[in-house]
Every structure is written in C-alpha cells, then in structure tokens.
Amino acid sequence: FYIWLQKLWLLLPGPGEYQFRLLTVALSIGIIALTYLLFSELLKNKTAGLLAAFFVAVNNYAVFSSALGERTEAYTLLLLLFCYFVVRRKKAGWAGELPVILAGAALCLTWLIGGVGVFFIYLFRKFYRREPAKRLLLSAGLLLLLLVPHLHYERKVNGDIFYTLNKSVNYFRNSELHGEASNLGARTTWLDYLRERGGLTIIKRTAGGYASLFFNPAGSFNRIFMGFHYTQWYGWLIFPFYLAGLILALKRGQAWLFALLLAFTHAFPYNLYDIRDPRLLFFLAPFFAGFIALGFYQAGLLLARAVRARAPAGVT
Length: 316
Prior knowledge:
The protein is an all-alpha fold and 316 residues long. 72% of the residues lie in helices and 0% in strands.
C-alpha cells in the first residue's frame, strides 16, 4: 500500500526527492491530526487530545522521522485511522463498518504484522463490546478478501504467503543469535521460531520487554516515547506525568485505550533489545503521548484548583 501511495503522490507533484520528502511530511502532519481526533474521542476531552497531538508533534524522533521517507510513517497514520474508525463509527451498520475494513486492509498491506493487532481488535469487539458475531465475521472476511491479491503474489513470487512476516522473523533471529540484524542464512518461519524458543522463554522475555518499555525511564525506547533522544536523561522529567496519566486511565477504566495499545504492541517487546532501529516501534508513540497528555491535563486541573483555593475571598 505504501508503494501505491508513493506512486500516486509522485504522479501529482512530479517525481523527485524533494516531492518524495513532502509525502512523508504530509504523513507526519496527518499523524498529528489523527492523534488529536483519536485521543479526544478516547479520553472524552478535546484539551487532552490537543495535548497528545502536541507531544507527538514535538517528539525528537518524530521530527527526525518525518523527513526520512519511512514506511513507518504510513503505518502509524493508517493504524491511528483504523483505531479512530473502530472507536467512533459515525454510522450504524455497514456504512460505519466499511471504513474499518478499508483502513484495516490498508494497514495490513503496509506492514503485514498489523494483521495481528487487527485480529485482536476484532476479538475485543466480540467478547468485550458484545458486537454481533455475524457482522464481525463478514467484516473480517471482507478485510481478508482485500488481502488475497497480495498474499497470492507473495506465494507466486516467493513461495510463501507470509514471506514478509517470516523475513522479519529471520531478521530478529539473526540479531538474537549473532548480534547482527540481517536476513542472511536459512529462512525460519514464525511457527518454527515459536517451537524453537518455547512458550516459557517467550512469555518471560515478552513480560520483561513490557516492563522496560512502559515502566523503565532509563530504557532507550521509554526515553524516545517521552519525547527525547535515547541518550538524553530529560525523559525523567516527563515520566511522572506519563505514569500519572497511565494510572488515571486505568482507574477510569479506559478499556478502548488499553485494548488498542496492547493489541498492536502484542509480542513486540519480546525482541525489544534486538530492535536496532527505533522507527520499528515508533507507531506506539501516540499512545504514550496520550498518557502524557492525560497526566499534564490532570496536573493542570490540580494546579488551577490549588490557585483558586489560595486566592483571597471574592477573587476568581
């Protein structure tokens, strides 16, 4: 899908590196706008949504990534779009379901691993939201139908419908075994990898990765998601607000927020220490920005309340 997007864009302003860079800037602006829309809806607060968009916009790595022409920009945009359509379907029935199907298919076609998150969201809609199973099955079936041409092409050209997924497995396996991320050597499928590592090892490493990602302010990715370079300590200043926002969201029972976050994070933290390029996880940054925004918003309310309480009688 990202290749189609590139070709369409370059047909309009014309070919050239400058025009190509403009596409990534446009994608980044779209990410900021969708962060505002999604988190205004999730948090039921437009001010908090605006703060979330602000923290995404000024994130050190977001500014850097916006000019690189990376596929992760398109993936993040489509992920937010899919989440927004799922959370806020403006029309009932198939009129509201069609945008979910199209955004989900585009997300999977951009990065096939996105299908894992889409699958979990469908399960959440069935077992937590109690949406009709028949409609969800038809919706998922139509989404899969849109993926068939791509999967058929992969089977025809590479002999494996999950070629791109298994290629990534090989990449991380080489990083884990040899300390060097590459696609060289014998190809390992994701099922072979699961059998090779064993369930207990995967669970332990994934849990450790989650702890580092979400609760370790000294961790590289946590620093990035706080808005700074992974070598800088300034993330410690933002971390208390992030943690307060996370706890507040838990207390409020923000089921959709955590469902979306965990669905698309799934087992990524297993390979947290083998991910050599922060761009591969940057699609999670808007969710961290949402927690940070909620923390700052609540701190602002408490500060305003304290100021009013200390104000002399008759002064507002």
